[in-house]
Amino acid sequence: MDSPHKPRSFSPNLFFFFLLVSSNLLTFLISNTFKHSSCYLYQQTYNSIDTDSSLNTDIPLVVQPAETRDDDIQASDLDLPSELRAFASPHKLPFGFSTNFDSDSIIPPVGHPCTRFPDLLRRYMSYRVNGSCPDDEILGQKLLLKGCEPLPRRRCRPAAQQEYVEPYPLPESLWTTPSDSSVVWTAYTCKTYECLINRVKSQKSFDDCKDCFDLNGREKKRWLSTKGAGLDFSIDEVLAVKKPGTIRIGLDIGGGVATFAVRMRERNITILTTSMNLNGPFNTFIASRGVIPLYISISQRLPFFDNTLDIVHSMHVLSNWIPSTLLHFLFFDIYRVLRPGGLFWLDHFFCVREQFEQVYAPLIESIGFTKVKWVIGRKLDRGPELNEMYLSALLEKPLKNSW
Fold first, then answer.
1. Is 14 inside any structural domain?
2. Omega into 150 within 30° of 0, i.e. cis?
3. Where are the alpha helices (DSSP H) in 203-266?
4. Model pLDDT for residues 340-375, shown as the tens digit of each residue
5. Which residues form a coiled coil (predicted)?
6. Quick check: is 206 in a domain?
């Protein structure tokens, strides 16, 4: 016989109340257990940087080792400098996921080859946070030329001139040698601009662009007239290829002291100049003249969006000393940043004649440019027995069907 008292069913509301209390208790216990974990300390450290304006700059800021941080630094990277890990590790966005980044974090870019040179990298990233950077321009450039590009950012103030003198005003600055006080000379053999100007006469050893700093020498005459068996195009004859006013912005790759950019500025055209500081303050000199330097190597992807520049120029730099595969990538990168109808002025490309016929002519023709000018001549400065040659070419990205 069934019992008259049926067992009561467990109340769903009571079950969910019990579950809620249990989960809150568990969360409380975990948060107290790990309150002083590395993640917590890491966040507190960075909060203090943002909020404490009275931070003592005489005391090095401690950055937690990567092995104790909640990020994706791999075990193989644990011997990297703490400042590199602080910069290059993923950084959580304050407001969470961003559709622009398609992520909830920012990962700052650092050249992967940086990690192949841990000793140099450790030296470069060793400094007092919020203090002065070491005077280490040679070290930074050595890393950059080894492929550590872009260099990691640092949290220190760069070496600077003790008594800086304001630059000459435009347009005077374009053709006036700057003050010696505009340069930190530690990295260079010469310690004055006078020494740099005279080194073509007094120095027997090779230096890149040895006579470039003499603005009253060859620089004064560059690109003003057609000469050299037709290899030397003038700026005005190149600009005449396009409708007036349609060449407005561009790039000069390996532009020495930026005389090309200065000539173009005199024609109301803005040119950025890439240059390294190979035993000379090229970037500082360029800026002192009143045009814009871009401190990147020929290996770096050009920092411009597709189809944007009107003209790209390069003289002597893009030649047979660059591995042919890398050169192929570089030419395609130039094609990428030029707008349809844009011009690539390949100025005095040099190689051995057999190389030109077998390698470089087919390589250049494979890119897709239209030939506007194509002039070949002998290169005799090192002797005719080497059978070297120059190519000066003016190439146009097709206005239609350039893709």
1. no
2. yes
3. 235-239, 259-265
4. 999 999 999 999 999 999 999 999 999 999 999 999
5. none
6. no
CB 397 within 8 A of CB 339: yes
Two tokens, residue 307: 């189809």
- My answer on whether 116 and 236 are in the same domain is no
pTM: 0.78
Q: Which residue has the tokens 């004055």?
A: 192
Amino acid at 176: T
Residue ending a domain, choose from 128, 145, 162 = 145
- Structure-token pair, residue 323: 């591995």
Paired with 270 in beta bridges are 249
Query: What is the extent of the structural domain holding 322?
Result: 222-254+298-396
How many domains does the chain contain in total?
2
Q: Are residues 140 and 227 in the same domain?
A: no
